[in-house]
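Exercise 7. Given the encoded structure of a 448-residue chain, write a plausible sequence.
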């Protein structure tokens, strides 16, 4: 089968880093660690495993950090990744084969994937974290019958969703309601990530919160704040002015797109909050916003967040950008709370405790969320260079959510990145049109 693979090759990574100074295309060229290639078909790993045909697989910011190797050479999470591996963890698809002991799903079911490789998939008794539903904090990412890995897409033994088929434990699958199309269901993972972050520190009625960043996790955070916390005043921050119509549709009260200094001043003016100006550096607000959901996680967003935060406010970090210096004096001065938020597990909404994936699918089935138009780019597996570049440079591509659609047909040419990188540059970010989708033998993925 075809799959997009990643290999930790020091010479390739070094070459890509060197050439990447000239152009990011180096990372998805023949010099880089990513390939679209033929690999062996997956097998059932046990009686409680299934084979899945991925129909759509979303590109996550963590995939981009991996491809472009911009997380820092000393990133501690390299300890829980094995290679080579098939990438992709935001997956929806169709069950094509089941093991003899499988009870949760049947052949032909449409399902969404919760990708964590915690105790249950590894065939181990539940650790303390897994017993509490905190699967991303599992103690056994190194143990069990296969290689280390946090989730599918980081494990050399359990392939990810950027492929024509994958093998998964039945506990990782959640049936998609008949009324929910794949195009909506594929956003389950970023929604669940956002949900977990907001539930870490819930906003109170009347409070003002900021969503920093308007990628897929950011827009999902806006969406769920409006759906679950309608009495909250929500401000959005992004560098992309073209996002204004979408942000307004999702219910943000205001959008800010300026650079750091102007941004702080504009938010202060909006809040009618007194501005403090130090001898050097950026101004800050004496009183500000109560919650900040930072989907970028860069030194800049953290620093600005602390400057616009109210005393004793909470900043929840969802995204992780490359590390740089951060001026964080205001963390102690304002007695701020800085929280990390890692993926999702069992979450509680409206008195009901369920996996974040299930909560999202239920909200969709009851028409409480409108995610139309959030998928802006879709690609066949062979176009991986264009897909990763579109996500990497969202300001140019204007991408919100970029997905792979393995069923898409492409011309029979050599599978390699160089040609697709050139095509990406010459074809307006390489968007795959509806005409191309409908021209495939399988038709449109949205409703089947």
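Solution.
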């Amino acid at each position: 089968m075809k799959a997009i693979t990643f290999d930790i090759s020091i010479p390739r990574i070094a070459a890509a880093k060197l050439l990447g100074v000239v152009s990011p295309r180096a990372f998805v060229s023949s010099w880089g660690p990513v390939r679209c290639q033929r690999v062996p078909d997956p097998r059932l790993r046990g009686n409680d495993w299934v084979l899945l045909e991925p129909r759509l697989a979303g590109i996550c910011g963590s995939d981009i950090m991996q491809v472009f190797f911009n997380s820092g050479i000393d990133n501690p999470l390299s300890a829980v990744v094995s290679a080579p591996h098939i990438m992709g963890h935001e997956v929806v698809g169709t069950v094509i084969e089941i093991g003899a002991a499988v009870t949760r799903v049947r052949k032909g079911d449409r399902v969404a994937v919760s990708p964590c490789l915690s105790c249950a998939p590894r065939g181990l008794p539940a650790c303390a974290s897994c017993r509490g539903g905190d699967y991303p904090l599992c103690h056994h990412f190194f143990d069990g019958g296969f290689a280390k890995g946090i989730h599918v897409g980081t494990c050399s033994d359990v392939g990810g969703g950027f492929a024509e088929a994958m093998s998964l434990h039945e506990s990782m699958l959640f049936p998609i309601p008949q009324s929910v199309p794949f195009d909506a269901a594929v956003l389950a993972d970023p929604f669940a990530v956002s949900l977990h972050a907001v539930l870490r520190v819930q906003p109170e009625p009347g409070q003002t919160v900021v969503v920093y960043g308007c990628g897929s996790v950011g827009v999902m955070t806006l969406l769920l704040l409006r759906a679950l916390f309608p009495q909250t005043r929500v401000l959005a921050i992004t560098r992309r002015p073209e996002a204004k119509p979408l942000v307004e549709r999702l219910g943000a009260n205001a959008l800010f797109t300026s650079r750091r200094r102007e941004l702080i001043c504009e938010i202060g003016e909006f809040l009618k909050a007194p501005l403090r100006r130090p001898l050097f550096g950026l101004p800050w607000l004496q009183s500000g916003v109560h919650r900040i959901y930072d989907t970028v996680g860069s030194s800049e967003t953290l620093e600005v967040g602390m400057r616009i935060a109210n005393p004793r406010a909470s900043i929840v970090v969802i995204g992780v950008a490359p590390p740089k210096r951060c001026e964080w004096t205001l963390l102690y001065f304002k007695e701020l709370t800085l929280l990390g938020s890692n993926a999702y597990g069992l979450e509680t909404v409206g008195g009901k405790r369920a996996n974040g994936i299930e909560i999202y699918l239920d909200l969709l089935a009851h028409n409480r969320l409108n995610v139309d138009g959030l998928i802006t780019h879709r690609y066949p597996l062979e176009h991986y260079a264009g897909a990763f570049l579109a996500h990497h440079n969202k300001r140019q591509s204007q991408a919100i959510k970029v997905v792979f659609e393995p069923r898409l047909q492409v011309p029979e040419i050599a599978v390699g990145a160089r040609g697709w990188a050139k095509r990406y540059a010459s074809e307006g970010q390489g968007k795959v049109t509806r005409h191309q989708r409908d021209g495939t033998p399988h038709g449109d993925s949205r409703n089947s």
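Remark. The chain has a mean pLDDT of 90. Students should compare their own answers with the one above.
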